[in-house]
Every structure is written in C-alpha cells, then in structure tokens.
Amino acid sequence: MGATPAINGSADLRDAAWGVGGKEYCSSNILPLKCIAADWSRVSQSQNVALKLQFSHRRSLFHALARGVLDSVLILSAHSTVPTNDQILVPETLLKKRKSQEKVRAERTAAIEKKKASNKEKRGVIFKRAEKYVKEYRDAEREKIRLHRAAKKDDSAYVPAEAKLMFVVRIKGINKIAPKPRKILQLLRLLQINNGVFIKVTKAITEMLKIVEPWIAYGYPNLKSIKELIYKRGYGKINKQRIALTDNAIIEENLGKYGIVCIEDLVHEIYSVGPNFKQVSNFLWPFKLSNPTGGFRARKFKHYIEGGDLGNREDAINALIRQMN
Fold this sequence. Notes:
The chain is an alpha+beta fold and 325 residues long.
C-alpha cells in the first residue's frame, strides 16, 4: 500500500474516507442502504484517526512544555535564594526617617541618663543636709537641757532665749473692724478666718499685733508644729497661683537662688529665722486651717489669760495648731 495522505480539513477527510471506488459506486441517484452505511462507517473511522492524531500531537506538546517548565523551576530553585535585607532596596525617605528617629532616641536616652545622674546627686545633697539639720536640732535641744540642769544645780533659774518666730492665726471675721486693724491684717496676709502665717519677731511686728489682738491668736511654734504645717498644708505662691508643694523641684525652681532646694531647707529656714526668711515666708501661701477639734472655748472673744482664745498664748499655740491642722 502507498503512503497515507495528510488530512488537512473536512474535504480531505471526506475524500480519504470515500476513495475513488466509493465515488463511482455511489454515483447513481438511488444508493443502496448498505452503500450509505459503509460510506459513513469509513468516514467515522477516518475522523477518529484524525482526532486521535491531533490529541496525540497536543499531548506531546503539553508534555514537552511541562518538562521545560519543570526544568526551569529546578534550575531557578538550584541557583536562587530568598533575598536578604541588604539585597532589598529601601526608599530614601524611609532611611532618612529611620536616621532621624535614631537621633531623637539617642538624644532622649542621653537626656534621661543626665537627669538620673543629676537627681541622684541632688538626693545625696538633700540627705546630707537633712542629717545635718537633724544633728543641729538635737544639739540645740541637748544644750537647752544642759543649761536647765546647770541652773538647777546652782539653785538659779534658767531663762530661755527670746523667741524669734511667731505663728499668727486669725480667728475672728470682718464685722465691726476699723480701717487701721483691717489694713494691718492685710499686711499680715490674714484675709480670712483660720488663716495662719509665720512672722519674724520684731518691735514693729509686736506693736502691730497689739492693735489687731482682738482678731488673732499667736504664739511661738516649735519644730514639730512647723513641720506638720508645711508638710500637710504647705502651698507655694507661683505666678500668683496657689501650688501644692508636692515636689522638691518646685521649691528649687523658685528658691534655688537662695540655696533652698528641698522642703527640709524650707523648714530649717523658717525654724531658724535665717537670712532668707522673708523670701521663704512670702513664697509660702497663708495656711488655710480648719476649725479646732472640739471648737473654740466658750468665751472665744476674750483674751487667752481670761479664758478665751485671743491674744498671745506663747507655747500653747502648738496645741491650737494641732487642733486646727
């Protein structure tokens, strides 16, 4: 048999299926049923052959393509890796932002470390000063006891030194008050009932207190009373505002130029009536006290020596401070 012709379409498929003999045999107008069935059988077989050839050809192409893709994947997987951070290109804006953030972070860390070192140094100074003040207070108390014992041993009386500090508290309102006493109370910053202030004892102050005696009670506070007042009810006058003394930084910021950096310095300056007493006293806002526990005496508006609460009560002012604090 000769070579099978190539099949390139429906016409070629029909010619290959029918052949020359088929055409001649089926040239008449009336075709036998067997001839038609035989011819269509040959056509179906030829179509199947053509479809099988096309499918086989496509399958070969698909396998070849798949093998090529697989080889490419294997080659890439053998010669390539995941890119590192150095191989990834980062935008310049992001690099600048990172650099700026690192600079700010470094500056903040340096500032924090500097502040920590400064605070540590300040704490050391404060502790040393506190120890110094405690020793000074104890030595003064022991000296007073020694002098008292020495005087008793010699059958003489011990006369303590005159007080240099007074605490004045207003216990009466503004009803029926003359202009002059009103002005003195304003100078003493005693503008409301139960207001209290520390005052340095001078001749002028003593004369002023005598004028406003019907509205005030005053005396000589001890160290304990001073500490209790400042620690519990201490407020500073900062920019004409009443600010609580909750941190030594507040005191250092306003009184640091006078060498007062902590609340212990402030207490010591008040108690000892130091050279900066005026600045410290003006810095302290007038103390706002409460009504005394149990109330005032029944004869409140009489002098203290007459059974009332007005006037000078000397060391007994400490009991009143504890009742009102």
